[in-house]
Each structure stands twice: as C-alpha cells, then as structure tokens.
C-alpha cells in the first residue's frame, strides 16, 4: 500500500504532520483522510550505510511522546512475541488449552491469565527499579517460579515475613540475586529470505526454446 503522506506542518521535535488515506483500490477516493505524525530517522550501528526508517503514528502531540522515544520503542516492537511466549508457553504451559467451555467462562479465564501476567511483570519492574538495572535482565521464568512458590509453599517467606509487603520484598531480593546477563549487541540486515531453487533463473534465450521434432519416448529405470 502506497500511503503517500501529504505534508501539513513541521513540529518542534523534527517530526511532521501529514494526511494519509489508509485505503487502496476503488474505495480510496471516498475514504476520509487520517492525520498522522511522520518521524524520519536513521539507525547508525557503526556500519558505513545507516538504515533509514519512516515511522507513522497517531500520537500527534510531541509532548505526549517525543520522536526519539517513539523511534526507540519501534525498534523493540518484536518483543511482543516474547510476551506471547511468556503467556502461552511458560505461564499457561506448552500445549495446554483453556479449561472453560462456555464463552463467558473462556473470557473470564483469559482475563485471569492476563491479570496474573500483569502481576508478574509488576514484580519484574519493581525488581529492575530496586536494582537500577535494565528490565531486560529480570527473568520472567524466575519471577513466575517464585510467584508460584509463594502461593504453593508455605515455607517460601522468610521467618517474620507474614505480610504481603514483606513477601513482595523477599521476592525482589531473590530476583536481584538471579538476574539475566546483559544482552549482547546484535544487528541484522534488512533483507528478504529467498528460497534457493535448483533451477536456473529464466533469461532471454529461454523464450525461444527449441521444440522436439518427434514424440518423446519415456524410459523408466528401476534401481
């Protein structure tokens, strides 16, 4: 889809407002234009030719989210897949299905999983704030493990930790001692995977391929 943003004005952080028509085909002429904010930026990771990007967002006010903040957040968009893995593989369990059979109960069970995930993520965020480390260094699997221990094992809290705040603080201290190593720096090219075929690419001399003069005779060899 070619959006072709039409320039409106430049904003203080270097981004600019534009109008686009989020539709292609015959309905494009009757579709109401949408105002978006355009952020043009490059990512320089030390190579000779930095990659250029264009980000479109409906967050129009730079005071609400600056251009650099949005560009940095966009680079982490793939991490939503990590969240799906946390919910489906680790928290719910591999190949596990929802137990509920009625639509209302299924919805209730999904909300339960989401609330549980939010609570674990809150514990991870508090641990990162307590240690001053990057939140990526706090392990979801370890946070899930200690949350389950706090519910299933009465011996989990230390002596005297008989309140929720004390148990929460103990969990943070335990996670602080079991942080993940720092992430290594990685970079990947913006390329499209192409399946390798055993056939040669078609060229001009294949257009006028010589045709057989006789009916072909097929021979089958049994090995």
UniProtKB/TrEMBL annotation:
Q: Where is the Transposase IS4-like domain?
A: 42-117
Q: By its UniProt entry, which InterPro entries does this protein fall under?
A: RNaseH-like_sf, Transposase_11
For this protein, the record's Pfam families field holds: DDE_Tnp_1
User: Could you tell me the Gene Ontology terms of the biological process aspect for this record?
Assistant: DNA transposition
Give the region (Disordered) as residue ranges: 201-223
Q: Which Gene3D superfamilies match?
A: Transposase Inhibitor Protein From Tn5, Chain A, domain 1 (3.90.350.10)
- Tell me one GO molecular function of this protein: transposase activity
Q: What name has this protein been given in UniProt?
A: Transposase DDE domain-containing protein
Q: Organism source for this protein?
A: Streptomyces atratus
